[in-house]
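tmp note - Glycogen synthase
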Amino acid sequence: MSLKILLASSEVVGFAKTGGLADVAGALPRALAARGHQVAVVMPYYRCVRTSKLPVERSEHVIPVPVGTRTLACRVFRSMLPGTSVPIYFIDQPEYFDRDDPKVGRGLYQQSMPGGYKADYIDNAERFVFFSRAVLEIAHVTRFIPDVVHANDWQTGLVPVFLNEIFRAKPQYEHTRSVFTIHNIAYQGMFGREVMKLTALPGWLFNHNQLEFHGHFNFLKAGLTFADAINTVSPTYSREIQTAEYGCGLEGLLRQNRMKLFGIMNGVDYDAWNPATDPYLPKHYDVDTVFEVKPDLKAELQHKYNLPLEPKKPLLGVVARLVSQKGIDLILSAAPGFLDLGCQMVFLGEGDPEYHNELQQFRDKHPQQVGVNIGYSESLAHLIEAGSDLFLMPSRYEPSGLNQLYSMKYGTPPVVRQTGGLADSVVGATHETLQAGMATGFSFGDYTANALYQTIKWAVTLYRDRPKDFQQVVRTAMRQDWSWDRSAADYERLYERVL
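out:
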C-alpha cells in the first residue's frame, strides 16, 4: 500500500544540521520513497539555507499562520532532497529563522554568550509554535494531505496537537494520523504557561494530563500525549525512558502510553559511509581487502595527528560531542591506563570547555601517544573511522548512535557501553560470541572507568595475541546491514499500524 507521508523536522542534512535528527530527516524520506511511498519534508527556511548555493526556488504559495493575536503571512520555498525527487518545503519567516550565523556565534536554536557558554533564543517557544502550525497549513495549500504526518523532537511537538484539536475538523484531515519520534528525551522544550496564548488552543488543555508539566508548557509532552504512535530511535532506549534513570521526568507518562510506544533503530546512509567508495579516504577497501589497506590509512591518521608511525600500537579513535552524555569523563579517567597498555589515542570533537582543556593538557603531557583536534572536520571524521583499530563510544546514554554503525562498516570494532542503540547494534566479543561468529565489537555494562579499561584491555589482548579472533570481529562487523531500507520497513509497519 502506497502512503502519503509528511515528515516535519527542524533540521535536515544537506540544508541545516546540528545533530543526528538532521541525518534521520534526510535519509528516512529517501528510503521511504524508494519503497514506493509519496513523501514530502518540511523545515524552516533558515539563513544557512537562504544564503547557500543549494537549488531552492520560491513557490507561489503564501500561507497565513496564526501566532497568538497575530496572523503572519509566510512564503513557501521548495527544493528536492539531494539526489532524489522527494520535495522539501521551507517555511519562510525572517522574524524567526533568518538569524543563524556561525561567524558571530548564532546557531539554529542558540547563540554564544560572553564566557563561551551557549544560551537558547528567548523566543524559541514562539518560533516553534509557529513552525508546528505552519507544517499543517503548508500541507493544506500544497494539497499534499498526508495519511501520516511524522513529527520529530520537541520543535514539532505541537503538530499532533494542532492536528487533533484544529485540523481534524477539516474533512480532508479526517483520516490523517500522527507519529512522533523522540530522538533525545533530555531536550523537551520547556517554557512558561504563557505559551498557551501563542497556540490559540483552548485553555483547558493546559492540565497535567495533556500540555502542563510541573507548571510549565512542555512541547515534548504535547507530542507524546496527542500523537497516535510514539517511537524512539532504538528498542532499548524505548524501554530505558520508561525508567526514572532515563525518563527525565516523563517516565510515568511513557509507561501509561507504552502500548503506543515503539523503538526503531536508526539506519546508515551507506552512500556517504562506505569505505569502498568514501571520497574522503585516500585508499578504498572492503571486507576482502581491509587488512591490506587499513595499515596505510592508520599511518595517514598518525601523520595527521603528528604521532609516531607505530603500526603495531593499537590506535583508539574518538569522534564525539565532548559532553558528559558521550562518556568523555570515563575516557579521560581510564586513558592513562590505555597508554600504559601501549595504545595511541586520537580525538575529534567539540563541546564543554572543561573537556577541551583536559584533553589538550592530556595531549601536552603525552604528545607521542595522544592527538587532539578541537572542532569538527568531515574528512578527518571519516579517516578516524577508517584508520583507527578500535573506536571508543562509552556513552552514559545513547538513544540510537550512528558512529558505532559507521565503525562496524569501516572494520574498526566499536567499544561501547550497553545502553540504548549501542546495546541494540553491537554484539560484544566474549568467548561465546567469538565461538559463534557473532561478535561485532566490545561492550560493558557498568558506567565506570574500570569497566571501560578492562574492556579495552580485553580488546587489546585479542588485537595483539589472538589476531585471528580480532580479524573475525572486524569481518563480522563489516558484514552487518544497518541500511535505511531496513529502518524504513519498520517505519512503514508503524505507519500502517496507526492507520
